[in-house]
Each structure stands twice: as C-alpha cells, then as structure tokens.
Amino acid sequence: MSENTTEVIVGGVVLAVAMGFLLYAGQLSGFTQTSSAGHEFTASFRSIEGVSVGTDVRVAGVKVGRVTDLELDPQTFRAEARISITGDIELPEDTAVIVSSEGLLGGNFIELLPGGSPFNLEPGSEIEDTQSSISLIQLLLKFVTGNSEE
C-alpha cells in the first residue's frame, strides 16, 4: 500500500511541476497576457513586412504592448495595424511608429517614439506618423546593381 501512495505523490508532484512550467512559458511568450487593461491604437503602414499578430511594441527598448490585429485596407492597399499598449502609458499626439529590427538576423518589432506635444492621443485613435519596414534584400540589390530611385 505504501508503494502505491508514494507513486501517487510523485505523480502529483510531476504534474504540478509540469503545470508550473507551462504557466511560466505562457507568461514569457506573452500568450497569457490580456489586452483589456490598456489602450488600443491603429497605424497605417506602406509595408509591415516581418510583423505579425503578437509582435512586441516597445518604447525605449521596453516592451509596453503588442500587435493585436493586422489587415489590408482594400482602398489604399496599406497595412492597418492595431496595437495594444498595456498599463496607463499616455502617448503624446505627435508620437511616431516605426517598424524596427533587432539586428541583421533578429526579428522586427514596433517602436513608439513619443513626441513633445502637451496633448495626448485618445484611446482608439490613429497614430499618423509611421515609418514602414525596410527590406534588407532590396537594400542589398540596390547596392549590388548600383540603382537608386532619385
């Protein structure tokens, strides 16, 4: 009877450790985060290559939110991104949004560059100052072929 009890206790400990690991992994990946506690904004980009739903949104290198939705506007053929900013961060109305890269081999993320306006953006509004992603392949092709678009 004591062997059976020991096996049940060890099995319970293994299950508890596995559940703890899954919760930790979910928090690290941002999968378990809710977006209801923050503000949502939209931004329109010519190209949003390398960005997908769940991509980090950062201010000064600190993660403050994530991309919650991406759509193509059929009239303008621009990518519409919806971003969610967690916490009670207030963005000035002249904030810029840039698709940045973590390096040559790193992934892309959305970077917010707050401006100096004394007025803040209202939640749900559009951030108009955007800079699209730069394709490394196109830059290398321009360098190799010597073509420039002037």
Protein architecture, described:
This protein has 150 residues and is an alpha/beta fold. Strands 7-1-4-3-2-6-5-8 form an 8-stranded mixed beta sheet, with no helix packed on it. A hairpin with a 6-residue loop joins strand 3 and strand 4. The model has no long low-confidence stretch (mean pLDDT 83). 25% of the residues lie in helices and 31% in strands. It has 2 helices and 8 strands. The protein has 2 domains: 1-32; 39-143, no CATH class.
In short:
The chain has helices spanning 2-29, 136-145; strands at residues 39-45, 56-59, 62-72, 79-85, 96-101, 108-113, 126-127, 129-131. With 150 residues, it is an alpha/beta fold.
SSE run: HEEEEEEEEH
Terminal residue distance: 84 Å
Portion of residues in beta strands equals 25-35%
- The radius of gyration over CA amounts to 22 Å
Query: Low-confidence spans: pLDDT under 50, at least 5 residues?
Result: none
Mean pLDDT: 83
Helicity, as a percent range = 25-40%
Number of domains: 2
Oligomer: single chain
Total beta strand runs? 8
Shape category: extended
Structural class: alpha/beta
Please give the largest β-sheet: 8 strands, mixed
Count up the helices.
Answer: 2
Tell me the strand order in the biggest sheet: 7-1-4-3-2-6-5-8
